[in-house]
């Protein structure tokens, strides 16, 4: 698939609009009214976006999948269980906030904080994806990419599977349980709004597959790649800032971030 070059936020939003129409047309909606009504239905396929600040040999795959030095895929998932367990135990010692008891929520929270897991961060907000594709703290000599797919979202509370084998409420030992292996080829999960304020601000969702080597972009039929040349990144970041999309607006509010926001008005 040929990527579409993007040089401005306006052009980007125009391509998002075209993709939305295409998605509904490929979902067998024939008239404009039906297309627009379907866009409002949460149960219908939605435009989901992922921004990557540079080109990877394997785009849209999890950090765990890229860690090939860990060996076979199943072993990597077993190690993920131990890593999440260790992360949760150490965070509990330094953070007064109570971690969620749900294993899925713990994996989501760990992933959001940067732990290598099988989950892949996506967003329902195209502007958020564009910001991460143009992230100026990253290497601006590389072109960025925004990947678009059309797929339904599943709320976490409707997901019956579990990523870990547990005994009652005893999480002292976690291991990969094949009886709870995800059977869907791929799944986009919407986390609860209480998971983390920053996830909510970024309109974050998570993709997971029963094969960590496969990406949502590879598995999805309706898709598009938008490429941002490196020399357009700073312009787009400036445009996004005028729209209120920046590193501060997408982060959790802290005393430091509030001070920075006030300082920007001086």
Widest sheet: strand ordering? 1-10-4-2
What structural class is derived from the secondary structure elements?
A: alpha+beta
Radius of gyration: 19 Å
Oligomerization state: single chain
Number of helices: 10
- Count of discrete structural domains: 1
Task: List how many beta strands DSSP finds.
Answer: 10
Helix-strand pattern: EHHEHHHEHEEEEEHEHEHH
Largest sheet: 4 strands, mixed
- The average pLDDT is 78
* Distance from first to last alpha carbon: 47 Å
β-strand amount: 15-25%
Enumerate the spans where pLDDT stays under 50 for 5 or more consecutive residues. 165-184
Please outline what is shown here:
This protein has helices at residues 9-26, 32-39, 63-66, 73-94, 103-112, 126-133, 197-201, 216-219, 233-242, 255-263; strands at 4-5, 46-52, 120-123, 144-151, 153-155, 165-167, 170-175, 186-190, 204-209, 223-228. By secondary structure, it is α+β, with helices and mostly antiparallel strands.
What do these coordinates show?
This protein is α+β, with helices and mostly antiparallel strands. The chain has one domain (4-263). It contains ten helices and ten strands. The strands form three sheets. It has a four-stranded mixed β-sheet. A four-stranded mixed β-sheet has the order 3-9-8-5. The longest helix is centred in the N-terminal third of the chain and has 22 residues, at 73-94. The N and C termini lie far apart (47 Å).
Blueprint of the fold:
Layout: E1 4-5, H1 9-26, H2 32-39, E2 46-52, H3 63-66, H4 73-94, H5 103-112, E3 120-123, H6 126-133, E4 144-151, E5 153-155, E6 165-167, E7 170-175, E8 186-190, H7 197-201, E9 204-209, H8 216-219, E10 223-228, H9 233-242, H10 255-263
Parallel strand pairs: 1-10, 5-8
Antiparallel strand pairs: 2-4, 3-9, 4-10, 6-7, 8-9
